[in-house]
Amino acid sequence: VSHSMHTLLYLCISVERMEWPASSPDLNPIEHLWDQLRRAVRARVTNTTTLADLRQMLVEEWDAIPQQCVTRLVTSMRRRCQAVVAYVWFFHTLLRLLFVK
């Protein structure tokens, strides 16, 4: 096994850390709001939509997102983080079973 593989295994098995991928839209509540905004605006856009119309639509649709939706996304962070931790725990356990003698 290469030196880098030993290092990787050491880090995976011995170092406690919380995985937080650099690009992790599922863990970023704003990404869900951007998606909701995109879908709402896309439903309104036509071939004759101007840039000024688009700006107005964005403002209107952003204002139309209920505070309850934002609150629900923020309060879901605990569950989302717990899911990541559980996944990492499972992955580390699997690595231990496969590679540690």
From TrEMBL:
Keyword annotations of the record: Membrane, Transmembrane, Transmembrane helix
GO molecular function annotation: nucleic acid binding
Family matches, as InterPro entries: RNaseH_sf
TM stretches of this protein: 81-99
Annotated protein name in UniProt: Tc1-like transposase DDE domain-containing protein
Organism (species): Dicentrarchus labrax (European seabass)
Phylogenetic lineage: Eukaryota, Metazoa, Chordata, Craniata, Vertebrata
